[in-house]
TrEMBL record:
Domain DUF1285: 27-94, 95-184
InterPro entries hit by this protein: DUF1285 (IPR010707), DUF1285_beta_roll_sf (IPR023361), DUF1285_C (IPR048342), DUF1285_N (IPR048341)
Domain of life: Bacteria
Protein name: DUF1285 domain-containing protein
One matching Pfam family: DUF1285_C
Gene3D superfamilies: duf1285 like domain, duf1285 protein
């Protein structure tokens, strides 16, 4: 059964985006608790590229499938899980990367929707926080995706966010989305 092609985010309304996100059916990985079976010999690079035994996985449909059975464990590690097996997977930074942004509205009425590299669409809001972490090589924005897993916001998308925030000309550099304010100035 082939996977449907990814929709063009720029042509979708926020209502369309909300509908697509609601229709996304993921396996109930949080309910699966098989015995640990070993290492998958897979890793997710910082740029969101998936590798198996050192070679990039070139089939987008395989990456989308694997990302649907990805889970973060209570100890912070990541696994690929099915009802019968659980395999470790190495994650260099975040397991996902937000590669596209759609913004509608202004100020407190703004909504920010992100396309994740695996095709998921996530709308920033109370359930999907957008946070900025200071690291030795500068600030890095992250978006909560699901189950304690985050998407690193790609640099080009971060620049879009900052431009929107600066255009707001507010007291604090940041953006609202779905009624929640997300500071982008690094202040706590």
């Amino acid at each position: 059964m082939p996977m449907e092609p990814l929709p063009d985010l720029s042509t979708l309304s926020l209502a369309d985006i909300a509908r697509l996100a609601a229709e996304k059916r993921l396996p109930p990985v949080e309910k699966w608790n098989p015995d640990h079976c070993g290492d998958s010999e897979m890793r997710i690079a910082r740029d969101g590229t998936w590798f198996h035994q050192g070679s990039p996985i070139g089939r987008e449909t395989m990456v989308r499938l694997f990302s649907s059975i990805l889970r973060r464990e209570p100890d912070g590690s990541h696994v690929l899980v099915t009802p019968v097996e659980k395999l470790d997977i190495a994650v260099e930074d975040a397991p996902f990367v937000a590669v596209e942004l759609k913004s509608e509205g202004e100020g407190r009425d703004r909504t920010l929707a992100f396309r994740i590299k695996n095709g998921d669409i996530v709308t920033a809001g109370p359930a999907h926080a957008l946070i900025l972490r200071e690291t030795p090589d500068g600030p890095h924005p992250y978006l909560h995706v699901r189950g304690g897993m985050e998407a690193l916001v790609a640099r080009s998308v971060y620049y879009e966010l900052m431009n929107l925030a600066l255009e707001e000309d507010a007291d604090r550099i940041g953006l609202w989305s779905e009624g929640a304010f997300f500071p982008l100035d690094g202040a706590a």
